[in-house]
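Assemble and predict.
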Amino acid sequence: MADNLIIAGKSYSSRLLVGTGKYKDFTETRAALDASGAEIVTVAIRRTNIGQDANAPSLLDFLPPSKFTYLPNTAGCYTADDAVRTLRLARELLDGHSLVKLEVLGDPQSLYPNVIETLAAAKTLVAEGFQVMVYTSDDPIVAKQLEDIGCVAIMPLASLIGSGMGILNPWNLQLVMERVQVPVIVDAGVGTASDATIAMELGCDGVLMNTAIACAKDPVLMASAMKKGVEAGREAFLAGRMPKKLYSASPSSPTAGIIASVRS
Amino acid sequence: MITVSINGEARQFPQTLSIAALLQEMGLTGKRVALERNGDIVPRSTFPTQQLSDGDRIEIVVAVGGG
């Protein structure tokens, strides 16, 4: 049976979600996305640049909607109001598309979520029919509140956005997973493939990343590594790891039938 | 003469114009954009009929790369 990720009733075969920022150009973006196997890709909503060439290629030209599910985000928003307005614009821009990534930031140094504003925005968005995947802290109480509001996925940070510091508090991620029923997707902090594997081994339903791929020396190769890292971690989680047995060595080969010593 | 803020930049027009005409002037006709007027979404279908007023604050957005 296919082990698919189900978000808001829709099934995805990839558990890796990727961002589209920080790439050299759209060609590299697309090559990395293809190598990652990701189906859900985040995009940001920004003002058109007055005076800029209106005929320059646009990101969406490189990301056919037949192949990718867009996940418009609210990156850069510091209030619930700005986040809600941004996603209303996104829905209009994307012809009624309702799956969105909510993130309301606390300050520009840490990009840590402001959970008070996040909760307020989530309430409004859910009431307006959005399917909200929400970036939040790894606080299990807040995660549960966001689920109760009706968010379709809880996306705790593993470490600060863009830091590449990896999974700093696996215990809190587990607390979050124990409390919520909707998918838990690690969003932010992954630096390399083993970080993604650890997140998946913990039982997370998916991993969302951008910088770890885009800012690798070879983004396309890293995208491929992340695909394998997520898949390996997921399989290890499903397989169920052996228990850790400190001070209890156990040989892998038979203890009987070993040839006799000739020195005695 | 009306003054309209477009993406935070004050622009003057000799007379009122429709949102469709504004987009045409900006070279954005047919482009995938979304538009907000004084904090409210303007549905694409109403671009030809909505007229700009003096003091309007317009935001015009596109999708760009982001995480």
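Strands of chain B lie at 2-6, 9-13, 34-37, 40-42, 57-65.
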